[in-house]
Design a protein that fits this description.
Blueprint (H helix, E strand, L loop, with lengths): L1 H5 L51 H29 L3 H17 L3 H7 L7 E6 L6 H5 L6 E6 L13 H12 L4 E7 L3 H8 L9 H6 L3 H10 L5 H20 L3 H8 L4 E8 L4 E10 L9 E10 L1
Parallel strand pairs: 1-2, 1-3, 3-4
Antiparallel strand pairs: 4-5, 5-6
Helix pairs in contact: 9-10
Length: 309
């Protein structure tokens, strides 16, 4: 069933043409989670219940209601007209982007997209942060059909004992059904999720969904506190951003079907760190050696570290 929904296929799609994308420098504020401040907006009701009881003739009531609806519709139409005139309607811009994609990419490489309609065979499974400034397809140039992706807060991978999540559901499909050859965990600079993790004072239960999720990275937080306690909070967060990637890479090995394929050298686990302040990218690979003794965990280290700038 999952295969039918997600479009798995044993046929290998033709590769799409590459398209270059200019990535502008983006300014940020380290105190902002996911690049924007969270604001609680209080909506005032359109109608207030009156505390004074009075009788209104039905005809007059219907007339007033009709006038109110007319004025509401007129205000709505004027707002939409103003948005179109000012060119600030985000969906109007989105429409033009889609039509541009269809004309300049889809129709220009129609054979590739027709092949993709029959199935997918990506080589990469990418786990990235939900942060709007960190788009793997833009940064690394992934084209349709090249990478199966899941994005969550702080690009975390929970260990298998934590139970089902959308992240390990995506992993299961990518590894067992699509048989990807590479899993790439991408972290990034100024991560609000990691900042939330490092700001936690205690481990007690909380009603915050963010806190309940980022606690998955508590081991990265603990190791950061142990080795970088003399650094500033911002520097500790920077350290934890990379340490959490390594912890997620290790957590991947807690899934038997991942560990088995890594041991057989048909699946590789990689880490990546994107610094969008100066537009640099670090990449490294997990080197895993299965233990010869039954019941003992294997050994792992990091290798093939590269710095792209």
């Amino acid at each position: 069933m999952a295969q039918a929904v997600l479009g798995s296929s044993s046929s290998s799609p033709l590769p799409c043409k590459s398209f270059s994308t200019d990535l502008p420098r983006i300014s940020y504020s380290s105190s902002i989670i996911f690049g924007s401040q969270l604001k609680l907006v209080e909506f005032e009701p359109l109608y207030q219940r009156s505390t004074v009881s009075c009788k209104i003739p039905p005809a007059l009531s219907l007339k007033a209601l009709g006038e109110t609806l007319r004025m509401t519709q007129e205000l709505t139409n004027n707002k939409l007209k103003s948005l179109n005139q000012n060119g600030s309607d985000p969906f109007n811009e989105m429409k033009h982007r889609f039509l541009s994609f269809k004309k300049n990419k889809f129709l220009e490489d129609l054979e590739c997209f027709q092949n993709l309609a029959n199935g997918q065979a990506p080589k990469f499974m990418v786990i990235a942060c939900a942060d709007s400034r960190v788009c793997p397809s833009t940064i690394l140039g992934f084209q349709p059909g090249e990478a199966f992706m899941v994005r969550n807060v702080a690009n975390l991978v929970p260990p298998v004992e934590n139970g089902p999540t959308e992240t390990n559901a995506a992993l299961e499909f990518a590894v067992n059904a699509l048989e990807v050859e590479n899993i790439l965990v991408i972290g990034h600079s100024c991560c609000g999720g990691i900042r939330a993790l490092m700001s936690m004072e205690h481990e007690e239960n909380s009603s915050s969904f963010i806190r309940s999720w980022v606690v998955v990275g508590k081991n990265a937080r603990s190791s950061t506190k142990a080795v970088a306690s003399n650094l500033s909070f911002d520097q500790q967060c920077r350290h934890c951003e990379k340490e959490s990637i390594n912890r997620s890479m290790v957590n991947l090995l807690t899934y038997p079907w991942i560990q088995e394929r890594v041991a057989k050298e048909v699946l590789s686990i990689h880490g990546g760190y994107y610094n969008f302040v100066d537009c640099t990218f670090e990449k490294w690979t997990l080197d895993y050696h299965e233990s010869s003794s039954e019941g003992k965990s294997g050994k792992f280290s990091l290798k093939d570290r590269e710095f792209w700038c």
